[in-house]
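Figure 3 (text version): structure tokens given as input.
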């Protein structure tokens, strides 16, 4: 595991430029640092030593040493790839999983990335063709950002945007469209970023720089992915169990201690159960809350269920008690670690776990994230197959969504039945309505900005959305932008590698094939996954209702965190000084917070985090 950064420039004569970029990435790799310079090409990395601890230094080279590779991540199928390459006469100098990248390039050229089962951001320099390749994994687990600022500097790239900002020879401006989208999703949707000149390399894509020309394209997948005949139900369940177990076991590749997130729910319990059977010891971690009522799932605290399952498995369990005060103490680090404005409050829980895991010497944490998007686990999925009128007449004036817990479920579903598919996609899963943002942002700021619903329009035509389409969109859009981003940024804040078995190429392929009827049956979510593991996980886990990790943000903003809201919407706040807020924003925000029909805490938390990010940015 490493972070990478680099640039190609014929005019920048600054020997410390790359060092400054890499300094900002030390948290992603505190164990080693190395640089590579060849004419106008400058590449480097910071290393978190996970595999081949003593010989895995980068860059890694092919046999002729005409290709140099820096990469961030893990290649989980490297034992098979290495064996195949050795049978073809390739010789390996290290035990590093990343060395297969160099030799695969000799064998397959640009096509190599489709052979990798892993999470990665890769930079590869080919001396012979004067070509730079950048690539990112299929699921989007590892981040990679770039800008192509001018003819004198072909490209600048890094694992985090803050490293690009340390490249002093470019000018960056805030992206108002990204800021507009932020309160809708709690994050900035890729490939856009908070800066107009910086982009995320899309997942499953490669970027090629040759002769000062930059090209981006998806790469083809060449992995042996499973196919299913869904007419034989028991056979499918057996295969699902096999695919999941193989994905978990492959992600145990490590020369350092491994731990697991353990919430007490189905997904993390499956991952932990499998890991505990294949490792000599496992440390598990969960977060405990005060028993504050949660409108999503009842009482918040899951720590008792997590402790009971950990005792059942015989693993070393650690419960971290969090409060409004302890989470508030993490807000500055949460903001900095998010890299750009990020307001997924459950990330505070991951940050707390990473902090505790680091204190116990853990450098790898396995997570149960992404099972919901792959197997149908979110609570509203059971309502996707209801009949809909699709008139959408009240949408622009009436911000009714699944967040309207003050309205009965039947009335909420009736409202949503009249939305079109794009509007309903927002209403099931997301936060600030377009009208709410217009009440908070200034008129000048709102000019010429596009609706955030465009992120649904590009996925499928309005008439094509089936229940499965909504889940496919969550897997394509929400999973990488929120779930994988959250895990990566918050674990790497404490130099810990977060791994997500449910984001493996094999499981993603399965998810693309599995019918809705295998995901949701009646009110049973993740039907196939539950039944595939019914003999491996206790009934108390299998039968527990869905219970996500929800921070009581509305409750805290009305009590212990109320001053944060007042500070954000004051005349002296950074967000106000940038001219982003309307003159009525403070009273509008207060009305939103105390709306007795709708939960707006997370929408407002976006403005708090944007303000804090701007404050940090001004000091950067």
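Below: residues designed for each position.
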């Amino acid at each position: 595991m490493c972070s990478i950064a680099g640039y190609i420039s014929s005019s920048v004569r600054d020997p410390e430029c790359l060092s400054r970029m890499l300094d900002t990435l030390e948290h992603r790799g505190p164990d080693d640092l190395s640089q590579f310079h060849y004419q106008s090409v400058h590449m480097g990395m910071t290393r978190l030593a996970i595999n081949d601890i003593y010989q895995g230094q980068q860059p890694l080279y092919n046999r002729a040493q005409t290709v140099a590779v820096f990469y961030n991540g893990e290649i989980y199928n490297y034992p098979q790839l290495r064996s195949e390459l050795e049978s073809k006469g390739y010789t390996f100098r290290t035990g590093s999983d990343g060395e297969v990248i160099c030799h695969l390039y000799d064998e397959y050229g640009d096509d190599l990335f489709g052979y990798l089962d892993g999470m990665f951001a890769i930079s590869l320099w080919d001396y012979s063709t004067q070509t730079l390749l950048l690539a990112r994994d299929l699921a989007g687990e590892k981040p990679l950002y770039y800008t192509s600022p001018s003819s004198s500097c072909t490209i600048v790239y890094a694992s985090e945007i803050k490293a690009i900002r340390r490249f002093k020879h470019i000018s960056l401006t805030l992206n108002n469209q990204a800021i507009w989208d932020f309160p809708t999703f709690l994050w900035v949707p890729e490939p856009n970023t908070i800066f107009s000149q910086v982009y995320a390399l899309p997942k499953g894509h490669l970027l090629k720089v040759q002769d000062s020309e930059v090209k981006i394209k998806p790469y083809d997948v060449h992995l042996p992915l499973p196919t299913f005949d869904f007419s034989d139900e028991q056979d499918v369940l057996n295969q699902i169990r096999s695919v999941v177990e193989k994905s978990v076991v492959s992600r145990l590749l490590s020369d350092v201690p491994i731990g697991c997130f353990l919430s007490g729910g189905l997904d993390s319990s499956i991952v932990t159960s499998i890991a505990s059977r294949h490792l000599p010891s496992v440390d598990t971690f969960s977060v405990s809350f005060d028993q504050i009522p949660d409108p999503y799932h009842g009482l918040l605290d899951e720590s008792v269920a997590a402790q009971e399952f950990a005792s059942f498995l015989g693993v070393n369990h650690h419960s971290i008690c969090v409060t409004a005060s302890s989470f508030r103490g993490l807000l500055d680090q949460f903001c900095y670690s998010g890299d750009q404005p990020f307001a997924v409050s459950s990330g505070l829980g991951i940050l707390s776990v990473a902090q505790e895991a680091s204190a116990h010497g853990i450098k790898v944490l396995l997570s149960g994230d992404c099972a919901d998007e792959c197997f149908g686990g979110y609570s509203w999925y059971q309502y996707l197959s209801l009949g809909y009128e699709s008139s959408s007449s009240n949408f622009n004036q009436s911000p009714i969504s699944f967040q309207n817990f003050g309205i009965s479920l039947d009335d909420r579903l009736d409202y949503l039945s009249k939305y079109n598919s794009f509007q309903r996609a927002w209403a099931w899963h997301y936060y600030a309505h377009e009208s709410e943002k217009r009440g908070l942002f200034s008129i000048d700021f709102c000019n010429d900005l596009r609706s955030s619903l465009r992120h649904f329009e590009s996925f499928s035509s309005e008439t094509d959305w089936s229940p499965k389409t909504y889940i496919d969109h969550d897997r394509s859009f929400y999973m990488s932008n929120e779930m994988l981003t959250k895990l990566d940024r918050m674990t790497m804040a404490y130099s810990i590698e977060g791994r997500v078995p449910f984001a493996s190429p094999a499981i993603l392929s399965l998810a693309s094939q599995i019918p809705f009827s295998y995901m949701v049956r009646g009110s049973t979510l993740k039907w196939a996954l539950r039944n595939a593991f019914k003999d491996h996980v206790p009934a108390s886990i299998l039968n527990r209702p869905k219970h996500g990790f929800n921070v009581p943000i509305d409750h805290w903003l009305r009590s212990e965190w109320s001053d944060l809201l007042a500070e954000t919407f004051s005349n002296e706040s950074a967000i106000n000084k940038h001219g982003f807020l309307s003159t009525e924003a403070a009273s509008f925000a207060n009305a939103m917070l105390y709306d007795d029909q709708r939960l707006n805490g997370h929408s407002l938390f976006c403005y708090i985090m944007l303000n804090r990010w701007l404050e940090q940015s001004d000091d950067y």
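The chain is about 40% helix and 15% strand.
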